[in-house]
Amino acid sequence: MKSIRILFLTALILAGIFSCKTQKQTSSENEITRIAFGSCNRQDAPQPLWNPILADQPDLWIWMGDNIYGDSPIMDTLKAKYARQNAHPDYARLKKSVPIIGVWDDHDYGRNDAGKFFAQKKESRDLMFDFLDVPAGAPERKREGAYSSHVFGSAEQQVKVILLDARYFRDTLERVDRVYRPNPEGEVLGEAQWKWLQKELKESQAKINLIISGIQFLPTEHGYEKWANFPKERERLLDVIAASGAQSPVLLSGDRHIAEIMKLTDSRFPEGIYEITSSGLTHTWSEISEEPNAYRVGDLIAKLNYGLASIDWEKKEILFEVKGETGAVYATQKIPFN
Questions:
Q1: Residue in 104, 30, 88, 146 with CA at minimum distance from that of residue 253
Q2: Which terminus of the chain faces fewer neighbouring Cβ atoms within 10 Å, N or C?
């Protein structure tokens, strides 16, 4: 009788009646055409953007940091705040229907603007992985730091998402009169993550490579957290991307409570490399009207926002949009790829 039941269940599985995959999982072989992303989300604040995000029917959601405002070295506090975010009904709908990946910035790390000396970083990282439903056997759980890569699609329609950890290994910054001073010799990624990143980019077969960090990559002028506070690391990153041969790299970032689209053109990137900053989901820097940024394309946006990347595989172009409540579009940028 037992053997008959086993044969019956096997037949059901083969027939597709039972599936090992949930609705939210994206197979590495499935075409991906729409990616939504955002940052800076207070778990105890109104969250009006999940419904327009759901209406866009993304194939993937990417958290880019400050996914909750934990701001505590007490892990029970962080755990409770993650639980509160998971219980939000609109976010729960997204989580049920869309694959979710991500990395942290500082508030979900546990302490504002913290780096490698945060004592609870390992425990905090594991709580974030639990929030993101990272499998127990995933490579990122077996090493230090929170960095990871994810490949979607196959052959000529492949997208690679590289999530950089700009907290766990980052050196200290000195702040004077609310402005961070550059740390000329300081590190952001640490050597293990650098070696991993070089390999991920060099071996990438993807037509589109999205490279993500909580803090901004390109800006050099503002006095807040950014890659330019570690000038050697910023140049090294741009050198590594350019030398890797990875196709169509695009930078995505959060943190700033504003949104903007940027482009750097130099000898390494003669056709330019773009960065899209999307922040925040629940609050923005309402007092700001302008801020110097030589790389900005278009306007600075200080409204609740999220990002959406729509890939047209036939035309070989990506439409990036910065969107807001009711699906309003605040900025757009088309980026071609080969």
A1: 104
A2: N
Residue 13 resides in a domain: no
Only one residue has tokens 């044969």, namely 7
Task: Tell whether 132 is covered by a domain.
Answer: yes
Amino acid at the residue 279 = S
209: CATH: 3.60.21.70
248 vs 301: CA distance, rounded Å: 25
Cα–Cα distance measured from residue 308 to residue 61, given in angstroms and rounded to the nearest whole number:
9
Banded pLDDT at 276 (limits 50, 70, 90): very high
Question: Residue range 34-58: average pLDDT?
Answer: 98
pLDDT number for residue 14: 35
Q: Is 326 left (phi over 0), alpha (psi -120 to 50) or beta?
A: left
Radius of gyration of the chain (CA): 20
8-state DSSP, 217? S
Give the tokens for residue 244.
């890797």
**3-class SS of residue 229:** helix
Task: Return all residues near 142 (Cβ < 8 A) that are at least 6 apart.
Answer: none
Segment 274-282 shows an average pLDDT of 98
The HSE-up count of residue 7 (CA atoms within 13 Å, CB side) is 4
Q: What is the pLDDT of residue 29?
A: 64
DSSP for 83-124?
A: HHHHT-HHHHHHHHHS-EEE---STTTTSTT--TT-TTHHHH
Which residue's entry shows tokens 């350019």? 242
